């Protein structure tokens, strides 16, 4: 069984006011000057003769006119700049495009914080719109059930696509499960975790699930075949490697699946992260399930055990456990 999830970290440090220094909460922005910058100082009080220079002879008027001209020139220049800014702003509003337009995602401006996947308040995928793959169901499309709807039994399979024990289970038991689905022995409900992303860092578990969602949108057979290819001994990485975080690697693996090899919509969905919000919703559903490790397999709601109560890791052990459970029912 793969280890449980890492407990969440501590609370982030509080945000400091932009005008306060750390450790000095009383400091604030500097007080405004007595007079706005750029204005000439106030003249001195009148002199005994009523002149502006305290009774001294008035200086030549030429420097005064020059200073006045400089002030007027500055004011004119400021007005010209203001005019340019106004014109630029008008042009932006009239069709040049605003900054908000540039960062707006399919579901609204980034960081809008809505419950539909925008702003990522619940790990649903940032500002992207939640798109659910075809052949999914349930809340937010996170239920993936493959097999005959009227099957008498349901196999629940909990996996982390980046998890080596899950890959070993897929390699040993996956073909038997695919045959049982075909025969109608049971239907399979798939659940996906991102335990390694959380414990080791990286995004391979979630990114591979997003690509698997793109395969599910093509067909359930493409989903099963692509999942088998991702978990194969040929393509599955070591737990210390985050190969599945690379879209190019995921697309290379997809060449093993005939239905995906030349499928342009699948490739575009992987490149664009179309199903990233869906993958995060699926991971959140696993986190709420109460299952603490992967792989975990349950038949009709009860853990499935092989001989001696161990987890079935071979097709023979798995089939024996399934047949015994069905017989007992």
Keywords:
Glutaredoxin; 6% strand; 5-stranded mixed sheet; alpha+beta; Thioredoxin-like fold domain-containing protein; 329 residues
Report on the structure:
With 329 residues, the chain is α+β, with helices and mostly antiparallel strands. It has a domain at 139-328: Glutaredoxin (3-Layer(aba) Sandwich). The chain is 43% helix and 6% strand. The protein has eleven helices and five strands, in the order ααββαβαααααααββα. It has helices at 61-96, 99-103, 164-183, 195-200, 204-218, 220-230, 247-254, 258-261, 264-272, 276-287, 315-328; strands at 144-146, 154-159, 187-192, 296-299, 302-303. Strands 1-3-2-4-5 form a five-stranded mixed β-sheet. It is globular and about 50 Å long. Residues 1-125 have low confidence and may be disordered.
Summarize the structure.
This protein is α+β, with helices and mostly antiparallel strands. Helix content is 43%, strand content 6%. It contains 11 helices and 5 strands; from the N terminus they run ααββαβαααααααββα.
Topology:
Layout: H1 61-96, H2 99-103, E1 144-146, E2 154-159, H3 164-183, E3 187-192, H4 195-200, H5 204-218, H6 220-230, H7 247-254, H8 258-261, H9 264-272, H10 276-287, E4 296-299, E5 302-303, H11 315-328
Parallel strand pairs: 2-3
Antiparallel strand pairs: 1-3, 2-4, 4-5
């Amino acid at each position: 069984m793969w280890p449980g999830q890492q407990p969440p970290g501590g609370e982030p440090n509080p945000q400091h006011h932009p005008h306060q220094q750390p450790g000095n909460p009383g400091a604030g922005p500097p007080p405004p000057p007595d007079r706005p910058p750029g204005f000439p100082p106030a003249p001195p009080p009148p002199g005994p003769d009523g002149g502006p220079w305290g009774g001294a002879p008035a200086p030549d008027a030429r420097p005064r006119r020059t200073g006045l001209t400089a002030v007027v020139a500055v004011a004119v220049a400021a007005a010209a700049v203001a005019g340019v800014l106004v014109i630029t702003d008008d042009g932006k509003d009239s069709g040049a495009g605003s900054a908000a337009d540039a960062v707006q995602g399919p579901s609204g401006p980034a960081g809008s914080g809505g419950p539909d996947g925008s702003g990522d308040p619940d790990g649903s995928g940032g500002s992207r719109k939640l798109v659910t793959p075809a052949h999914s169901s349930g809340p937010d499309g996170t239920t993936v059930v493959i097999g005959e709807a009227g099957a008498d039994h349901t196999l629940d399979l909990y996996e982390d696509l980046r998890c080596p024990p899950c890959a070993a289970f897929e390699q040993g038991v996956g073909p038997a499960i695919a045959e049982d689905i075909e025969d109608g022995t049971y239907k399979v409900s798939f659940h996906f975790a991102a335990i390694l992303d959380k414990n080791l860092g990286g995004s391979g578990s979630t990114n591979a699930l997003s690509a698997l969602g793109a395969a599910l949108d093509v067909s359930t057979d493409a989903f099963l075949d692509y999942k088998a290819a991702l978990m194969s001994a040929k393509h599955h990485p070591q737990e210390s490697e985050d190969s599945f975080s690379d879209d190019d690697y995921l697309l290379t693996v997809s060449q093993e699946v005939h239905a995906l090899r030349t499928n342009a919509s699948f490739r575009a969905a992987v490149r664009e992260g179309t199903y990233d919000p869906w993958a995060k919703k699926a991971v959140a559903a696993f986190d709420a399930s109460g299952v603490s490790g992967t792989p975990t397999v349950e038949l009709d709601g009860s853990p499935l055990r092989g001989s001696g109560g161990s987890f079935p890791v071979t097709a023979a052990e798995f089939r024996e456990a399934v047949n015994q459970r069905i017989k007992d029912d």
